[in-house]
Amino acid sequence: MTRIAFCGLGQMGAPMARRLVEAGHEVAVWNRTAEKAEPLREAGARVAGSPGAAARQAEAVVTMLATPEALHEVVRGDGGLASGMRPGSALIEMSTVGPEVVRGLPEMLPEGVEVIDAPVLGTVLQAESGELKVFVGGEREAFERWRPILEAMGTPLHAGPQGAGAALKLVVNSTLGALMVGLGEALALADKVGLEEGLVLDVLSDSAIGVTARSKRDRIESGKYPPNFKLELAVKDLALVADAADGCDLELRVSAAARRWLTEAEGAGSGNLDYSAVIAFIRGQAASA
After folding, report:
1. What band does 102 get if pLDDT is binned at 50, 70 and 90?
2. Beta partners for 26?
3. For residue 213, what pLDDT is reported?
4. Is residue 288 part of a domain?
5. Residue numbers annotated as active site
6. What is each CA distance from 228 to 118, 206, 284, in whole angstroms?
7. What per-residue confidence (pLDDT) applies to 106?
C-alpha cells in the first residue's frame, strides 16, 4: 500500500483515482469542483480541501489536469502542491501538457521531490478498466519504483528521460486529429458525389483508416457525439504539437490543417462533444451529445 494524492477528477482522472483505491492504496483526492470528489469518498478515498493538503502525507502525487495553466495553478498556487510535498516524495504528472512544461516542474517544487511524466493513451472506458497505455519519462530507477502505481491504471512503457513520455504523447496525438479529419473529409466527399453513407463506412472500415471508422461509426450514423475525449481537449493537444514543432523548426502541414478544422468546430459549439464531432462539422451536419 502506498499513500497517494490524486489531483484532478475529470472524465479520465476520476476512474483512474478509483483504480488506485480499488488496488488497496491509501488515496487522498482533490478537485477544483469539490462535489466531483464525493463518489471517491464513498469508495474509500479521503477528500482534501486543497492540493497541498492532499499531498502532505503522500509518498506520490498524481496530477491529471486539462491544461498547462491548470497544472501550474495546482502546483504553485495558494495551497498548491509546492506547499505540501516533501523531499523524497514524487510527482507523477499524467496530464497532456508537453515536455517543456514537464521539465519546468522540478524548479516549482521543494528540493528532493522527484518528477516523472506519465501521460496516458486511451479513453474513459480504458481508464475504468485499467487498460490505459502509460508513457513514462524519467530515470529507469524511478520508473521501476513507481511502476506498481502505474500498473493499477494501465500498462506503463518507459519512453526515456524526463519529458520523453510527454513528447511521445504529443507524437501519438499528432496523428489523432489527422485521422479524424481525414475521415471527415472522406465522408464529405462521399456526400457530394452521391454515395450512400452505410456503403462508404463499410468500405472505409476495411481500409487503412478502418480502426477510426469502426470506432466512431455509431456516432457518425446517429449524429450524437457523447464525449470520450472532448473536442476542446483535442484542440489544446494540437496546439501543444504545434508548439513542439515550432521549437524544433519543423513544419507539420497535416497537423496544422487538422488543428484548423478542430478549432473551427470548437468555435461552432462542439467543444464539449467527442472530438469525432469534427466529422459532422466538416460535413455541414448537426451534432449533439
Report:
1. very high
2. 3
3. 98
4. no
5. 169
6. 20, 23, 22
7. 97
Confidence of residue 136 (pLDDT cuts 50, 70, 90): very high
Q: Which of 73, 111, 79, 75 is nearest to 93 (CA)?
A: 75
Which uninterrupted H or E stretch holds 247?
helix 231-247
For residues 25 and 138, give the distance between their C-alpha atoms in angstroms, rounded to a whole number: 23
What confidence score (pLDDT) does residue 13 get?
A: 98
77 plus 143 within the same structural domain: yes
Q: Any idea what DSSP says for residue 288?
A: B
Average pLDDT over residues 153-162: 98
- Domain boundary, last residue among 107, 134, 161: 161
The predicted pLDDT at position 159 comes to 98
**Is residue 219 located within the same domain as residue 176?**
yes
- Domains identified in the chain, total number: 2
Distances (CA, A) of 259 to 43, 75, 219, 243: 39, 29, 21, 12
Handedness of CA 118, 123, 128, 129 (dihedral sign): negative
Residue 117 CA neighbour count, 13 Å, CB half: 28
Domain ranges, residue 118 = 3-161
